[in-house]
Amino acid sequence: MKTKLSTAVFLILSLVIVNLTLSCGNFGTYMLLFGEDNVDDRVGKNGITQLGSITVGENQNQAYSFICISDVHFGSKKAAFPYQSFFNSFDELLDSSDPTVVPRFLVCLGDCADGGSESQYNEYNNFLNQVKTHAKEIIAPDDDSYNFNCYSVLGNHDLYNNGWYNYKKKVYPYSSYYTFQVNPECENSFKFYIIDTANSTLGNYQFNSFIKVLREDTNPKLVFSHYPITGDEAFIFKMQNTMERNIMLSTMVEHNVKGFFAGHVHTDEEHYFSKFTEVLVPSTRYRKGFRLITVNPVTNSVTSQIYWF
Asked: Is the full-model pTM beyond 0.85?
């Protein structure tokens, strides 16, 4: 009797494992058996990568805008990417008569690839190249030196199938934890911080580094993450370490953070924390939306408008 029961249990477990493996699709057996790699291994002890500064707009003291997209999941079989409708909306903003709402660069909040493969990152880069082409043709068709910068955040899907190896080889700036400054000659020049929350935590090295740089940097700051700190979704869709989240929140409130932007949950939400707002960006692929973020260095403020297409 025990032998028959053991055999039945073994067969059931085997069927479950096979079913999970087959259903993993882009996630692969790597995710089923081993999960994601470790943020401490990715960031290491070297601290944050400094990209330097960029200059945008017609006047460094003028308000400027940028596009924030998220969860584009290139390689996904669930839904085709809405190229035409996205570029219709994007081109309309690029062609605006108001220079303060013309997008000057783009930030993608992670899950650039659905399953972390090299071919999916190639698709993602092809999309970014189209973004750059549209921007140049509309904003500066005769300026060969013009460049529309695209920045990326590492998402949990980007780690699947040993995806970090492909990501750091393919996706600019080939780092998951970095910073850059916009319009450095401006009195209230904003610093942009891209953090690695692809494992739903900062890890020890990055946490210590990030808290340190926030405290030392007196500039107004924007922070970009894949995982939200809070949100209306279940706990598993947020950063998992509550102590880490609480210290991050209090440090950002105290040290001039003006906005925290995240994706992952595919929905659009906003949560106010006395001195800054956590803004969630919907999935550009599945929800067909993005946000236009406008930074005003004169008023030291940040606003966000969602665009559905």
From this structure: yes
